[in-house]
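retry 2 of 3: previous attempt timed out while embedding nickel (II) ion. Reduced batch size to 1 and resubmitted. Inputs unchanged:
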Amino acid sequence: MKVCRRETFNAAHRLFRPDWSDEKNKEVFGKCNNPNYHGHNYVLETWVEGDVDSETGFLIDLKVLKQLVKTEITQRFDHFNLNLDCKEFANLNPTSENISIVIWNILREKLDPKYKLTIKLWETENNICEYSGE
Ligand code: NI
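retry 2 succeeded.
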């Protein structure tokens, strides 16, 4: 059984590697390499897998999951520039893949180990990334 909490956040980013030339950055990252940054309306799905508690009928209390995602993720990244404002990406290219790994690592530490955790991050309606720890 799996349940999911969906949250959204807006954030700006720029994809680039400081150790690459401007030309190579432009070639690999295209429009996402714009030096003046650009924004996304990210949709974050936090999927939790486990057993249904026979007493409550819940897998996990979604109020608790909602609060966890808000406190740990939304408040941390919403309306920030990931490259400039968020220490997690000071030395890490903020691709969807890397953002998903960062989010998964943060939530994994806070979530009861009895649950399996999967992060699904929608950068656009068409570009989606999923991470379960491997
Ligand atoms: Ni982008």
